[in-house]
Amino acid sequence: MEFQNDTAIQFERNQKFLDKATASKPKLQYDTIVPNRLVKIVKDEAKLFGYEAVTDDKAMQDLTTYSFGRNEQLVFDLGTHYVGKFSVDLTSVGAPMDAPLYIQLIFAEQPVEIGDVNKPYTGLLSQSWLQEEYIHLDTLPAKLELDRRYACRYVAIKVIDTSPKWQVQFSNPKFIAESSVTMTQVKPVKTGDLELDKIDAVSLKTLHDCMQDVFEDGPKRDRRLWLGDLRLQALANYASFDNQQLVKRCLYLFGGMPTVDGKISANVFTKPHDIPDNTFLYDYSLFFTSILFDYYQQYQDQETLIDLYPVAKTSIDLALTLVDSQGLLHLDKGWPVFIDWAQDFDKTTSAQAVLIYALKQFIELAQIKTDPDISKYQAQLTLLVSASQEQLFDKATRLFVSGPERQVNIASQCWMVLAGVLPDAGNYQLMTKTIAELFPVKGVATPYMYHHIDEALFKSGHKEEAVKLLKDYWGAMVHYGADTFWEAFKPEQPDFSPYNSLAINSFCHAWSCTPTYLIRKYLLGND
Amino acid sequence: MEFQNDTAIQFERNQKFLDKATASKPKLQYDTIVPNRLVKIVKDEAKLFGYEAVTDDKAMQDLTTYSFGRNEQLVFDLGTHYVGKFSVDLTSVGAPMDAPLYIQLIFAEQPVEIGDVNKPYTGLLSQSWLQEEYIHLDTLPAKLELDRRYACRYVAIKVIDTSPKWQVQFSNPKFIAESSVTMTQVKPVKTGDLELDKIDAVSLKTLHDCMQDVFEDGPKRDRRLWLGDLRLQALANYASFDNQQLVKRCLYLFGGMPTVDGKISANVFTKPHDIPDNTFLYDYSLFFTSILFDYYQQYQDQETLIDLYPVAKTSIDLALTLVDSQGLLHLDKGWPVFIDWAQDFDKTTSAQAVLIYALKQFIELAQIKTDPDISKYQAQLTLLVSASQEQLFDKATRLFVSGPERQVNIASQCWMVLAGVLPDAGNYQLMTKTIAELFPVKGVATPYMYHHIDEALFKSGHKEEAVKLLKDYWGAMVHYGADTFWEAFKPEQPDFSPYNSLAINSFCHAWSCTPTYLIRKYLLGND
C-alpha cells in the first residue's frame, strides 16, 4: 500500500469531542508477573520460525546463585504473552566492580526475535521497533527499571561485558503487565470442542493485550489506533470484555479530527497528544459509520450518536462522491481501499460491497435520527445494490467479478455476502460456489481478510465450513505455539513475513482477535 | 601486571577517617558548553589514529534546519576535551511519528573512537568502557538528558532509524562540564617558549578534567583513585589549582581502608560507597607516605599528619619486611612493584630506590612527629643506601644494575637519582651517562615513567635535556592534536594501544599531567 506523505492536509480539531475522548480514557489495570522458568533459545529448523525455547539447566528458583560474565545470557519465560514494563535487580560478585556493566535486553514475543537479534536487519519497517535495549550500569547493586513498554513472552538479558574480576547476578525479575481490562472479566467458553475453546482463549488474550490507552493494532509494533482494526476489536470486545468507554474514546478520537473536508484518517496517534495520521483508506473511512452503528446497537448511547452522526454522514457523503450515476464505485488513486494487504487482486467490487455494507448501517442510524435526508441515501443504496447485482454479478458463473478484466476473487464474494447484496439463498449459493472454486484460500496473509471470509461463511449458513476455517487458520497458529494471534499468517507459507524479517512481525495483533466474536456470536448465539 | 583476585582479604574500616574523607568532598563546578561546530569524521591514514575531524558542510548555526533519517549522522565538536553530561532537544518533521526514534550516541575524546565504533571490539579491557549509548525515543519532541557522565570532545549522534515518513531534527545541544576546580583559577604560564606554554596548558586541562569527586586516573576509563596517580596529581595540583581538600579527601580514603595487616590498596572505589580494591602494588603503597609528606610540606596540616602518620608508619614497616640484613630489597610475587607498565625489564633496583625515596620522606615526618622509633628508620635508610651504592652501583660502568643478571635500565638510574642515593655530582654524572647510553628512551609507553625520567633530569641538573624531553614527549602529543595528555604514548610507535584497541585508550589521563608541575617548579622556580 502506498502511504501518503502529504503534510499539507488540513485537519479539523473538535476540542469538545477530543475532551470526551480524554474523559473516557481507561484506568489501566496492572498485574505483576514473575517469570516461571529460565529458557534457552535453541536453533531448531523443525520449528516454524527456526528457534525453540527449551527449559534451561539453570533453575528459576536458584536464579540468585548464578553469575554471568562476558557473552553469557539468560532468558526469562513469562509463561505467556504480556504487555508492560520490566524490572530486575542486579548485583556484582567477585572483586569490586572495576568497569561498568554493559547488557543488552531483548523482549521477544517469539523465540526467533532473540535468536535472530544480532543478524543484520533486513526488514522493510523501521528497525526502531525491534524491542531491544543496550544499558550501561556504572554501579551495582542497582534496580533496573526500564521506562519503555514492551510486548513479549521472553525477556533475554545478554551480558556484553563485566570485567575478568567480577560477574553480575540477577534477582527479583518482574514484569508489570498492563491492559485496560482483566482476563478474569470474561468467562472462558465451553463449546464442547477443546480446540475451539483454545482458539477463543488465545483470541481473548490477543484482544486483552491490545486494549490499552486505546485499542492498539499491535502492542509490539505500531501501537496505535486504526479504524479497520477498531471495528473488529470493538465487535470482539462486545462479545467479551464489554468495555464501553474504550470504544467510545476511540470513536471520539476519530470523530474529533477529520480533515476539513470531512475525511476520516485511517489511524490516529495519541502521543505526545492526539494527532490524526495523514493516511486515508476508503474502506476504513466507511468503517467509522460501521463502528458507530455497532456501538449504538450495543449501548444505545444517544449522546454519542448525536455527536458523531454528523461526522459519519459527512464521511458517507464523501465516499458517495466516487459513485457514478449508474451506481458503480470508481476508486480514486489518492484514496486507496485496503480490503487486504495483497495488492495483486482487483478491489473495486469489494470496495463497492463495503460501501453498501456501511451505507445500510448508516441508513439505520438515519432512521433513528429521523434524518430528513434519509431518502437520498436509500435511493443511493438501491442504485448501488442493483448495479452490483446487474453489473458485478456474473449470471453465467454465479460469482461476483471485479474490475475491467472481470476478475473473480474471494474478497469480492465475501464482502458481497457481508453487504447482503443477494438474498439469503443467493448468499448461501454464492459461498457454496466460492468454497468449490476458490477454496482453499490462497495468497491471503492477514487474519483481517480471513475474518471476513469466515464471517461470510457463518452469515451465509456455511457453519461447518466456517468452523473448519477457524481451525485451519487460527487453529494452525495455536498449533505452531501462538500465545496470541499474529498480524500475518499464510497457512500455505506459515513462516511468511510481510516485512522480510520475522523479527519485525507483530505476534499479537488486534485484527486477529475475532474468533472470540465469531464463536460467541455464531456458535454460542451470544448476539 | 597480574591483578590479584583474592576476595578473602580482610580490610580495616576507620570510619572516622572515612567521615573526614566525606567531609572533604568537593563541590563540583559546572560549566555549560555549547558545541561550536559540526564536524565529519573522515578516514585519513596520514593522521596518527587514522581519522580526522573536519568541519562539516552543515553549519552549527543552522542546526535546527537540518533533518536526519536512517543511517545519517551528525557530530558536535565541543572545541576541546570536557567531562560531564550531555543533553539535546529532538523533534520530528514530516508526517506524524509512526515508529520510535532509534539513535546511537558516541562520546569521543579522539575521532578514532567514532571512526572505529562499529568495528568488532578487540580490546583487552572491558568493552563496557566504550562511551556509546543506544536510545529509543517513543515520542517526539523530547529533551534527551543522559544520566551518565562522559569524557569527550566529540559527540556523535547516529540515527539508526526513523521511518520513511518523518525525520529527526536536533536543537539546543549542551554539555554540562564538571570538575572540582575551574580553569580560570590558574594563570597560564609565560615561559617565553610558546611550546612549553602550550604543554603547560594541556597539562592543566588534563589535571582539571581528572579532578572530580576524587582525583580520577582517567575520566573516560577507570574513573577511580589510584595511589601512584594521586602522588603526581597532588604535586601538579600544588603547582596550579592548589585544592587542599581534594588531596586531603584522597589521603583519608586510602588511610581509612588498609588491610588488617596495614597494607594500602593501590586504588579505591567511591561508588556505590567507599571500597578498597584488592590490588596491591609495592611502590604505590610506599607513595602513601610520599603523598602525606608532600601534603604536609604544602599545608602543614597537623591534624591530618597526626591521623595518618600511624598508617604511613605501618605501611613503611610492612615494606621494610622485604629488606634483607644487608639492605637489599627482595620483591614478593604477591606484592608486585609497578614502576612502569613494561614487564620486560628488571624492577628490583627501581623498587629499592622508591623505598629509599619514601623512607627519607617518612623520616622527615618522624622528625616532625618526634617519633622515638626514628633511629630504627634512620639505620634502615643508611643500610639501604649503602647497599645500593655498593652492590647495585656498578663501579666500572658507573650505572646502576638491577637483578641477578645485573641489567642496566633507565628506570633504575632515574629512580636512584630521585632517591638521592648518590651525591649531587654523582647524580649529574649518572644522568650524563644515562643520556649517552640509554637515550633516546625506548620501550616506555607511560607518561608516568617519562615523568620520573624528566624529573630525574631536572633534579640532576640536566635542565636542557629535561626541556628537550618535555617537548619530544608531551610536545609530540600536542603536535598530534592532544587536547589533554594521554594515558599511553610511545614516541617510537605513536599509535600504540596497550589494550589492542585505540578506542579503549584513555586520552585524558592523570599521570600525564605533570609537565605543569615540572615547568612551574624547575623552570619558573615556583617551589
UniProtKB/TrEMBL annotation, chains A, B:
<dbReference type="InterPro" id="IPR035396">
    <property type="entry name" value="Bac_rhamnosid6H"/>
</dbReference>
<dbReference type="InterPro" id="IPR012341">
    <property type="entry name" value="6hp_glycosidase-like_sf"/>
</dbReference>
<dbReference type="InterPro" id="IPR049164">
    <property type="entry name" value="Glyco_hydro_78_N"/>
</dbReference>
<dbReference type="InterPro" id="IPR008928">
    <property type="entry name" value="6-hairpin_glycosidase_sf"/>
</dbReference>
<dbReference type="GO" id="GO:0005975">
    <property type="term" value="P:carbohydrate metabolic process"/>
</dbReference>
<dbReference type="Pfam" id="PF17389">
    <property type="entry name" value="Bac_rhamnosid6H"/>
</dbReference>
<protein>
    <submittedName>
        <fullName>Alpha-l-rhamnosidase</fullName>
    </submittedName>
</protein>
<feature type="domain" description="Alpha-L-rhamnosidase six-hairpin glycosidase">
    <location>
        <begin position="189"/>
        <end position="520"/>
    </location>
</feature>
<dbReference type="Pfam" id="PF21104">
    <property type="entry name" value="Glyco_hydro_78_N"/>
</dbReference>
<feature type="domain" description="Glycosyl hydrolase family 78 alpha-rhamnosidase N-terminal">
    <location>
        <begin position="35"/>
        <end position="175"/>
    </location>
</feature>
